[in-house]
Amino acid sequence: MRAGKVDGVPNLCIKCVTKSRKKDPCQRISRLGGNLWNGGKDFPEWSFTQDEIMARLRSGRFKYHTYVEGRRYEIGIAEGPTGPYLSTHLDGQWNDKLLFVHRRCKEVPDVHWGRAPK
Asked: Closest Cα to residue 43, out of 76, 87, 71, 10?
């Protein structure tokens, strides 16, 4: 399953990451995305900037995860030396597994459930 609900909150799977050439971990990832899941059929692709995903996490309206090397990693907001950024979390440890998601995101129009909250 690629998406589901945890505690009544949609939990979406990150399947693509667009990376920049910046070395700062707070700015290294520019876009993240995936697709909706519905009974065995993949639905529209979505992608948002790192800031939009962080706004969705902070709002409590969405949760995110990804799979790398067969393991599920939860996505959260970590604090770096130059500010917050998205990172993966497993077994009580923050790590950089988002950088191992190899598929590059394409920009897609907003899907019916809208943009990140302001």
From this structure: 10
Gap between the Cα atoms of 45 and 117, Å rounded? 19
* Sequence-separated (6 or more) residues with CB below 8 Å from residue 65: 11, 12, 13, 14, 72, 73, 74, 75
Instruction: Please give the Cα distance from 26 to 96 (Å, whole number).
Output: 11
39 phi-psi bin (left φ>0, alpha ψ -120 to 50, beta other): left
Tens-digit pLDDT profile for residues 14-68: 988 888 776 666 567 888 988 765 555 555 678 899 999 999 999 999 999 999 8
Q: E strand or H helix at 80, and its extent?
A: strand 71-80
Phi, psi of 58 (to 5 degrees): -65, -35
Residues, the chain, total?
118
Angle at 11 between CA 9 and CA 12, to 5 degrees: 140
DSSP assignment of 54-68: HHHHHHTS-EEEEEE
